[in-house]
Design a protein that fits this description.
single chain; alpha/beta; 3-stranded mixed β-sheet
């Protein structure tokens, strides 16, 4: 909750934050069953102010990527809030938006970025469409090493309880490998210290297989054009 005067304080489960920065509000309907006649700020402003109160990066990343993924607000709206909010305490919001600018679209992908930025891997792209000959998107590569035609997938679910979804994943995997892509899958829980050594070994073996020079220069490249998978 925001207030223009008084002091920062907790009321029940709500945290009241005093701010001198102007903000506009809209009121919910008096007929709203959950939030009746309540003044609300725009989502981007709410996220920016909430981020200032966190002492850990992960929840800020989750707020930012979740809001963008669900189209609650846009990266540009959050960047505008970042530009006008206090610098003190805004570091986590800045980092989360840098991750988004690099192409991360989920909190799991931001954790992947943390590790790959420090690993002995070639430059990579995030969230690149893989298309067939008709231009139809058949998959989105979470992480793509274009020269190596190597795709790393971070599965959003630790286990596939839904058999049709599991079969679709396997069919897509098989189609990509049939057309010359190397594909590897990891659950989010596998992304931890030591994980990048396994990824590096996989990529080095792929470079040997293709007969190309391995360049370990970790950086995130702007997403290039869709990759054709015949």
């Amino acid at each position: 909750m925001l207030a223009r005067e008084g002091r920062c304080r907790r009321i029940g489960q709500a945290w009241v934050r005093v701010t001198a920065r102007p903000y506009a509000t809209v009121r919910t309907s008096v007929l709203d069953p959950e939030l009746r006649d309540v003044a609300l700020v725009r989502p981007a402003r709410a996220i920016a102010d909430a981020a200032l109160g966190y002492r850990w990066l992960s929840p800020v990343r989750a707020m930012v990527t979740g809001a963008i993924q669900q189209q609650v607000c846009t990266p540009d709206e959050l960047l505008a809030e970042l530009a006008s909010c206090p610098r003190n305490g805004s570091g986590f919001l800045r980092q989360a938006l840098e991750d988004v600018a690099d192409g991360a679209r989920s909190v799991a992908e931001t954790h992947v970025l943390d590790y790959l930025r420090q690993a002995d891997v070639p430059p990579f792209e995030l969230n690149v469409p893989l298309v067939d000959g008709a231009g139809q998107v058949i998959a989105i590569a979470d992480v793509l090493w274009r020269e190596l035609r190597a795709v790393l997938e971070i599965d959003s679910r630790e286990f596939h309880f839904d058999e049709p979804a599991w079969r679709a994943t396997m069919q897509r995997h098989n189609r990509l490998t049939r057309h010359g892509l190397a594909v590897t899958h990891y659950p989010p829980s596998a992304v931890q210290p030591g994980w990048t050594g396994e990824v590096t070994s996989w990529l080095r073996a792929r470079a040997v297989e293709l007969g190309v020079t391995y360049h370990g220069r970790p950086c995130v490249l702007p997403a290039g054009p869709p990759l054709l998978v015949p």
